[in-house]
Amino acid sequence: MKVLLYSSNQKLKKKSGIGRAFYHQRKALDSAGVSYTLDPKDTFDVVHINSGSPKDIKRFKKKAPVLVHGHSTYQDFRRSFRLWRFIEPFFAKHLQNTYGIADLIVTPTKYSKYLIESMHVVKAPVLAISNGIDLDAYKPDVNKVKAFKERFNIKEGDKVVIGVGLLFERKGLHDFFEVARMMPDYKFIWFGHLNKILRTHFINKAIKHRPNNAIMAGYVDGDVIKGAYQCANVMFFPTYEETEGIVVLEAMASKTPIITRDIPVYYDWLQDKTHVLKGNNNQEFKSLIEYVSQNDLSEMTDNAFEVVKERTLEKVGQELKGAYQQTIETRKIKK
């Protein structure tokens, strides 16, 4: 079996969750011994589309069964890009046209599976398979911590709060700033980038008026971001909507205490005070950050690590292999 891994405009998506997921898929398939190609002109038995148009899917379906990766939902598009209210009806139609013609759909969590299955046009089977995590890449490493500290001038005794994600309103970046404003003795660092013209006016204004202790790091990859996870007191992720949140998996793999918003995607696999700490508003988030600084949460981070061990790329590779086989069988049944 040979798989075509396809994603349109991959360079534009490199810094996004879809880009990270695409990279993870390649490593996962390598671990599972599944042959794949990135060249649509190559030969293949099944197509795995991460992003593309309905036209792309129809073209590929003439050659092979098509699995569509359900990275996006109506819900996580909202409060993201500039003019999202205007674009939303067109995006909704795009999702319907994309998911509606897939032979099989894979999406990261049971929550996103439920959302996609709720779309009346979806007739294909929907499987929940995590985006996965490379645990070895997030093992403790003093050199990575050093790289982070030197990059951001972190001194002994500094209390560091990090956030990671595209500069979307949906990610709660404005709340990150407001909590930073309430905690001037802490360093708040947000990792992520989005062209100013694509951001909402609300987020551009929030960035312009952020407090002095809130640092915009931009897009940072490699040792520095891994060192940030290992060094930070807490990863604060006040997102309003996710299909999974690869950055949460990265923090769990790094055994970083996590504070996140109490949202549906985490209901069934991340329990409050057992794996992460959950809050609902900025005052609660402030109190939780203070709690993390004053308490030993090693048991909680160990519990979270046990959960993320179920989402290794090796396991994801085997699950994707099974999904491809099911895609092929599903097409045969349709015929």
TrEMBL record:
Keyword Metal-binding: no
Transferase found in the keyword field: yes
Sorted UniProt keywords: Transferase
Domain Glycosyltransferase subfamily 4-like N-terminal as annotated: residue spans: 43-136
InterPro entries assigned to the protein according to its UniProt record, in alphabetical order: Glyco_trans_1, Glyco_trans_4-like_N, Glycosyltransferase_grp1
Domain of life where this protein originates: Bacteria
Pfam families with a match to the protein in the record: Glyco_transf_4, Glycos_transf_1
Protein name: Glycosyltransferase, MSMEG_0565 family
Protein species of origin: Acholeplasma hippikon
